[in-house]
Write a structure and sequence with these properties.
With 195 residues, the protein is α+β, with helices and mostly antiparallel strands. It is 27% helix and 25% strand. A hairpin with a 5-residue loop joins strand 1 and strand 2.
């Protein structure tokens, strides 16, 4: 077998069930004999596979391809939630909600009322950008809607080559490890602030 690859050995399980005897007094006794004879699977260390996967990206930090940079995107968005004071909205609240949330403007008030009349709160369908949050909260106040907002930090790194291509790593753990290796190696960082 190759190093780092799980090796499975034969699995043999034999079970012998014994007698079940109940006493006439209402009490009970159960004899159950089990004979299990098997060899557990032998797992070799699988870490080399993970390390090997990370090393596939080594050209991004080891100097063999010095065209890689790390772009840091500083981006924040906001989740806005409307709280209905009586534990459920009135028909007027639904009408105001349509004015606050652009995604609801083409939805008939009657449909929204049927969907939301028993809920205590409603989160806007789309997150609000850092630029637009002040205006959104001001509009909510003018409409008489009680809103809460939660900041969502969407900042992160992206490996970008000087030729314009970007490396997208779908596995989150691998992406974090590659980023850490690039940071440790001193790969140039480009900061971008997005609103």
């Amino acid at each position: 077998s190759r190093a780092g690859v799980p090796v499975w050995q034969p699995f043999d399980c034999r079970r012998k069930a014994g007698n079940h005897r109940m006493h006439g007094s209402g009490g009970g006794q159960r004899n159950f004999e089990t004979n299990v004879n098997y060899r557990r699977p032998v797992m070799r260390d699988v870490r080399p596979l993970k390390i090997m996967a990370i090393e596939e990206f080594a050209h991004m930090w080891d100097g063999s391809d010095d065209g890689w940079t790390l772009h840091y995107f500083d981006r924040k968005a906001w989740r806005v939630t409307v709280r209905f004071p009586k534990g459920r909205p009135s028909i007027h609240d639904i009408s105001k909600l349509r004015q606050l949330d652009e995604d609801l403007r083409n939805v008939p008030t009657s449909s929204l009322w049927a969907r939301l009349r028993d809920v205590a709160s409603y989160s806007l369908a789309s997150e609000v950008s850092n630029v637009d949050i002040h205006a959104k909260m001001q509009l909510a106040a003018e409409l008489g809607l009680h809103c809460e907002c939660q900041c969502i930090d969407q900042s992160g790194y992206l490996a970008v080559h000087l030729n314009g291509s970007a490396m997208i790593i779908e596995d989150d753990d691998e992406a974090k490890q590659v980023t850490q290796r690039m940071l440790y190696a001193g790969v140039p960082i480009v900061e971008t602030h997005t609103d």
